[in-house]
Design goal:
Blueprint (H helix, E strand, L loop, with lengths): L15 H11 L10 H8 L2 E2 L3 H9 L6 H10 L2 E4 L5 E4 L1 H25 L4 H18 L8 E2 H10 L6 H13 L3 E3 L7 E4 H4 L8 H16 L4 H8 L3 H10 L3 E5 L2 E5 L12 E5 L3 H4 L23 E5 L2 E10 L3 E8 L5 H18 L2 E8 L1
Parallel strand pairs: 12-13
Antiparallel strand pairs: 1-3, 2-3, 4-6, 5-6, 7-8, 9-10, 10-11, 11-12
Helix pairs in contact: 3-4, 5-8, 5-10, 6-8, 10-12, 11-12
Length: about 375
Amino acid sequence: MCKARWHDRAMVSPTPEDMARWRLHHLRLTGAQEPDPAAVVDHLLGVQAENVAQATWAIGTRCGADLGAVERALDDDVVRTHVLRPTWHFVRPHDLGWLLDLGRERMLPLWRRSAEVAGVEVDEVRAAVAVVERVLSAAGDDGGPGHLTRAELAEALARAGTPLTGMGLGHVLGYAETEGLICGGIRRGDHTYALLEDRAPRRASISREEALARIARRYVVGHGPATDRDLAYWATLTLTEARAGLHDAGLDTLEVGGTTYWCDGEPEPGAFSPRAHLLQILDEAYRGFPESRRVLDREGLLVTGRERAIGMVLVDGQVVGDMRRTVTEHEVRFELTAWRTWTPEEVVAVERAAVRYGAFLGREPVVRLASR
């Protein structure tokens, strides 16, 4: 039990502040940063990337890189594709193969059902996937990169007599990604798709047991402390699979408030630094913990149900408000709503977070604060 090694405080459970500090340190939001964007994705294993404009900041804030450096990494060292859950993630090419193998059995039925809801039958899905694979292969025959946009793939499908648009096309492409045939390509003013073998060549396969232990360890090292249900959601695993992986991963456990958390080593001491963060709610700090998100909400300020904003304000590891961001040619405007009264010191910390965000985008930050 890692609580027995808690800085010589034998058998003393951590405080809520300890838990939040530990988690933010593992998430690379406080303390030492990663050296570059690719290292951030390596450390976290997967970074949810549905909203690219916000997700680039999720990487930049963890390594100090600016937007240009993150965008270059997305073309050279990182792939944006559907993996882990039926949504976009940034992953490293060397991790994509085993992650797809691990999740394919549970993910493919999800894509088939969603395609059927969109009016695309199973036979149509298979036919469309074959066309997409063929077109991407032909696109690279002339020595070019073979990366095509969604619109270009839709045109090719229409020419082949299998027209698809909208959600139907999106579900077919997600199915092809999960099958391990295609993945995200380089940016050409828009997201593109490429053959998986061109961006993430296959490596030696590993057993399912090894993959479960690997994903459990990588998740906890990059996100912990976390629960088995957190991992099951994050990686689309059954609870039995998540527990098996955690038990085989050589991790510690910690009991807090009747909940078992899995952890790696001992917590980092010291103060929160930096104190404040402006993040999207898709950030791993929030979306990566469906069960234990309360670690960031000891005051009970989060509303239940559908979130009312796409951004959040963290101070000392706690959610204290929401954030809406507007980017113009020269400015980035932050509309912040405080969910409780902020101290003058907290206001300064939030303003410093806005300055960091503005520097990342190369824009002047403008902060407007209101109360809920």
